[in-house]
Amino acid sequence: MDDRIEKHAALNAPIEKVWRALTDHEEFGQWFGVKLDKPFEPGEIVTGRITQSGYDHVTWTATIKTMDAPRYFAFTWHPYAIDPDIDYSQEPTTLVEFRLEPTPSGTHLSVTESGFGALPSHRQAEALRMNDHGWSVQIGNVATYVEA
Length: 148
Description:
By secondary structure, this protein is α+β, with helices and mostly antiparallel strands. The chain has one domain: START domain (Alpha-D-Glucose-1,6-Bisphosphate, Chain A, domain 4, 2-Layer Sandwich), CATH 3.30.530. It is built from 3 helices and 7 strands. It is globular.
């Protein structure tokens, strides 16, 4: 089984705009589909409510790890933690990394999520499959958001 997801996008937007869309909690919430409770700051745990239909019972929780403007943003979270009756807090987290590089036409964005192999064996395959699909959707969402 793969331990990571990697997605890439060539965005027709300046790196500063993409950085803001990723690291401003209100902008992030608009394209990601979550209403967050506070700004992103390294070391902080940020929570919020998913606003996408069918997932609005889910609490989004992440620990902000690194914000190296305007090139690198990382957080950890519990992947595909959508069952409100399960306490995921004792499980290992995965690391989500956003890397930005300026290009002549805008910004190259890469998103990597790693650490699936450390999850409980019964959750590994589904979490990887669902988040792989989820990041495909989210890459499209951020592209639509920053290119508007």
